[in-house]
Design a protein that fits this description.
The structure holds 2 protein chains of 2 kinds. Chain A is built from 5 helices and no strands. Chain A is mainly alpha-helical. In chain A, helix 1 runs antiparallel to helix 2 and helix 2 runs antiparallel to helix 3. Chain A is elongated, with a radius of gyration of 18 Å. Chain B is α+β, with helices and mostly antiparallel strands. Helices cover 47% and strands 16% of the residues of chain B. A 4-stranded antiparallel sheet of chain B has the order 2-1-3-4. In chain B, strands 6-5-7-8 form a 4-stranded antiparallel sheet. In chain B, helix 1 runs parallel beside helix 3 and helix 2 runs antiparallel to helix 3. The chains are: A mainly alpha, B alpha+beta. Chains A and B meet through helix 1 of A and helix 3 of B.
């Protein structure tokens, strides 16, 4: 009986951590989407640079917790792109800038959906 | 490299914890679900050790999930006979009244060599000596010899005696095991007197056992 209770407590902790992680991931994702959409719709280079900084800052603060349950190579790939968009903005390479923003968006969606207990991610 | 090293240690401790939670079984006594869980756990543990991109939690959680599932299954096995039958099957008689049940052996995909090898494990070298043989749910075979081939017992020879519990370990590697001493209903005074009688110190003892009749056995430490 003691073992069952111990294992039940461990499973409960896992589920609580998993749900908290998903809620937090969703929060980070939505905030980043807001910045990404705003950056993609602006034509002002200065604003693009500012949004790039915000995206990088938000990603870096959020990814510290995401490291506990998301594959590190996927996080690293997103990190690299977040670092590179500022350079594209400063060089006024709007096409590449928006393309990289779309990549970040896709990666976030992919990582989030991989963690969600959906039919597609389980099977 | 240190990361891989630390991950290996942490996962090793998690696996030990999970195996302790799952309970003690020797490999030969494992049910199919026990065996599956053990193999899967060992394989899953290797993944986060080899690939540092996999977060530790993502490596540990499936192991804990399996250990928990195994615990639930074993509890269901204990409570529900039908469930137990479903999970482990039922024992099958392969020798009945001295006659080999060849149809049962075919069902079990067991060859005669397997049967003879198992019999030799029971010190049975002539299959004619076997009255009953039963294949257990874990795949092992139990044998019942014919009456005339059974080893002599004290009861058969009408020898009377009392049942005695096994000797207890009193000293292990120079350390006094108080619990063993208490279970053998012996006190420290007896121990001190015995050690003095044998002219030996506690630290010089590798192993000492004793039973309730104060019959003891000492293995001195080899230097």
């Amino acid at each position: 009986m003691k073992r069952m209770i111990t294992m039940a407590a461990i499973w409960a902790a896992i589920f609580i951590f998993a749900i908290a992680g998903l809620v937090y991931f969703n929060y980070i994702k939505e905030r980043l989407y807001t910045y990404i959409d705003a950056a993609a719709n602006t034509h002002d280079v200065q604003e693009m640079v500012e949004y790039s900084d915000k995206i990088l800052e938000k990603w870096e603060s959020g990814s510290k917790f995401l490291r506990f349950f998301v594959r590190h190579n996927e996080l690293d790939e997103t990190q690299i792109i977040c670092h590179s968009i500022k350079a594209y903005a400063e060089a006024s390479d709007i096409g590449e800038f928006r393309s990289q923003l779309l990549k970040i968006r896709f990666l976030l969606k992919h990582m989030y959906e991989s963690e969600m207990p959906l039919f597609g991610s389980i099977f | 490299m240190i990361v891989v090293f630390l991950r290996a240690i942490i996962l090793y401790l998690i696996i030990i914890f999970c195996l302790r939670i799952m309970g003690k079984r020797q490999i030969g006594d494992m049910s199919p679900s026990d065996l599956v869980a053990t193999i899967l756990i060992s394989n899953m543990a290797a993944l986060p050790i080899e690939d540092v991109n996999i977060p530790m939690l993502t490596g540990a959680v499936p192991i804990l999930a399996l250990a928990g599932s195994e615990l639930i299954l074993t509890n269901l096995n204990l409570r529900f006979r039908g469930f137990r039958r479903l999970m482990t099957g039922k024992p099958m008689i392969i020798i009945k009244n001295g006659v080999i049940q060849q149809d049962q052996m075919k069902l079990l995909r067991m060859s005669i060599d397997d049967l003879l090898e198992a019999a030799r494990g029971y010190n049975i070298f002539d299959i004619q000596d076997v009255h009953y043989a039963i294949t257990e749910t874990n795949g092992s075979i139990s044998f019942l010899k014919k009456f005339t081939k059974e080893n002599l017992t004290a009861e058969a020879m009408e020898i009377k005696g009392a049942d005695m519990p096994p000797p207890k370990v009193i000293v292990s590697d120079g350390i006094l095991i108080t619990q063993g001493l208490n279970e053998a209903c012996l006190g420290e005074k007896w121990l001190t007197a015995t050690l003095k009688e044998n002219n030996i110190n506690l630290n010089d003892i590798f192993l000492m056992t004793a039973d309730e009749n104060a019959k003891y056995f000492i293995v001195p430490r080899q230097n």
